[in-house]
Write a structure and sequence with these properties.
- The structure is a single chain.
- By secondary structure, this protein is mainly α.
- 73% of the residues lie in helices and 1% in strands.
- It has 22 helices and 2 strands.
- It has a two-stranded antiparallel ribbon with strand order 1-2.
- It is elongated, with a radius of gyration of 35 Å.
């Protein structure tokens, strides 16, 4: 019998490097020996593989297999050589079968099994055998593997196997784990979510993923996707639609004079002429005057000016305070805020909240926007968190909250 030698160690190292398995997968023990008879074909196979003569190396491996009474140690070496030769010849099925056979060995420790399955799964993935890859990776995690790269391969394998639902679920798990650790998931992870949701026709899911993208990786195109879905909501009251446009402006999505004119028109419809005047002022402050028909801009500015000039604030206030509803008083206070009344406006809004309000979520949203504008960020966040239920105001509250709380 021949004890382990420097040659044997070299053989194992070369084999593991070729097959993708760590050297730890065949830890040598003092009792491990190779018979002189077995050493001859094994060394021959090694030399032929080094020369790139894999077909001949396979014949030498067969010679080793034909030797009777091989020890478990010797059989594992033979399997390793078979895997290495198969990988080099791109005989994927043979290599994968070799890995499976090696995993049946009682000589492998838990860590060694994990490394071997990882190599098997990686080979299957590179060979575009996605169902097999999925199977191997599940075995890898069941065995106790925790390499995050394998989680990524699992997600990609599901997607490439057209199982978008499973790909989405696994990607969500990965994102949740990172959020739990206090980390911000990579931009590509949420982009992948969008891709899966698009394949599945999940519009609500897509909007949520774009919100996450816009919050953590603020780019106009992400906010544009989020806001376009809100803008297309049917049956919005002008006051609600104005807040959609206001958020679009905050997200940097309004880039032309025509867009600000549209925002101003909606403000007029909502009963906020001073807010309309503020919107028109943005055309000049952002140097957008030349992006539209200048005569149209001037005509609309003149129109807004006439409305604000005719406004009888005292009469409006007196009537609003008499009303049992707080709607008119709140709207008056909100518009006065945009008129520069940063103390009186919020005061009237707060007074109105003590009365019945038709759309309390909208009122709380607008109050939060005012608080944010006067530097009361903490109060704004508190108000936004108090908004419950569904509907556009609640969705906008969520968007504002994400924007204010973003790191």
């Amino acid at each position: 019998m021949m004890k382990q030698s420097a040659w044997m160690r070299k053989l194992l190292v070369a084999t593991f490097l070729t097959s993708g398995i760590s050297i730890g997968a065949m830890t040598l023990h003092a009792k491990d020996v190779v018979s002189n008879q077995m050493a001859v074909p094994l060394k021959k196979a090694e030399q032929l593989m080094k020369q790139g003569k894999y077909a001949q190396a396979d014949e030498a491996i067969k010679e080793a297999q034909a030797i009777s009474n091989a020890t478990p140690y010797e059989r594992d070496i033979i399997t390793q050589l078979q895997i290495a030769s198969a990988v080099k010849q791109n005989k994927v099925d043979a290599a994968l079968a070799g890995y499976t056979h090696l995993l049946s060995s009682s000589r492998l420790s838990k860590a060694q099994r994990i490394q071997t399955i990882m190599a098997q799964a990686s080979l299957a993935y590179r060979s575009r055998k996605y169902p097999e890859t999925i199977q191997y990776i599940h075995s890898y995690f069941k065995e106790g593997g925790d390499n995050t790269h394998m989680q990524t391969l699992l997600i990609q394998s599901y997607f490439l196997n057209n199982d978008y639902k499973s790909a989405l679920a696994e990607q969500q798990k990965q994102i949740d784990a990172e959020l739990k650790k206090g980390a911000v998931p990579a931009e590509t992870q949420w982009q992948f979510m969008v891709n899966c949701q698009q394949k599945l026709g999940d519009k609500d899911g897509m909007r949520n993923s774009y919100v996450q993208l816009a919050t953590h990786y603020p780019k106009p195109e992400y906010w544009s996707h989020v806001m376009n879905s809100l803008v297309s909501t049917k049956g919005m009251k002008p006051a609600v639609e104005f807040e959609v446009w206001q958020f679009r402006a905050k997200a940097g999505l309004l880039t032309t004079a025509d867009q600000y004119i549209t925002m101003a028109e909606i403000a007029i419809q909502a009963g906020y002429p001073y807010a309309a005047r503020q919107a028109m002022a943005q055309i000049h402050s952002q140097n957008l005057f030349g992006t539209s028909d200048q005569k149209r801009v001037l005509r609309f500015e003149d129109y807004v000016g006439k409305i604000t000039a005719k406004a009888d604030y005292a009469a409006q206030l007196a009537q609003a305070e008499k009303d049992t509803s707080g709607d008119a008083l709140f709207a008056l206070g909100y518009d006065q805020f945009w008129n520069g009344q940063v103390t009186e406006g919020p005061k009237l809004m707060q007074q109105a909240l003590s009365k019945p309000i038709t759309d309390r979520n909208l009122a709380l949203l607008q109050m939060a926007i005012v608080q944010q504008n006067i530097g009361q960020k903490a109060k704004a966040i508190q108000l936004l968190k108090s908004i419950k239920g569904t509907g556009v105001p609640a969705e906008l509250a969520g968007l504002w909250l994400m924007k204010l709380e973003a790191k």
